[in-house]
Amino acid sequence: MSPTEAPVTRRRPTWPQLPAPVRAAVEARLGGRAVAWTSNDSGYSNGLASVLELAGGDRVFVKAVGGENDFTRWLYREEARRVALLPAGVPMPAFRWWASLEDVPDGPWEVLAFDAAPGRPPRMPWQDDELAAVVRLASRIAEHTVPEGVLPEAADELASGRHWEALAADPPQGLDTYDPWVAANLDRLATVAAGAPDAARGGSLLHGDLRGDNALVHAGAAVTDAVAVDWPGAVRGNVLCDLVGMLPSVRLEGGPEPEDVLAAHPLPRDTDPQAVDAWVALLTGYFVSASLAPPPPGVPHVRQFQRAQAEVCVPWLRRRLREA
Question: Which residues does 174 contact at the CB level (< 8 Å), separation at least 6?
Answer without folding.
Answer: 291, 292
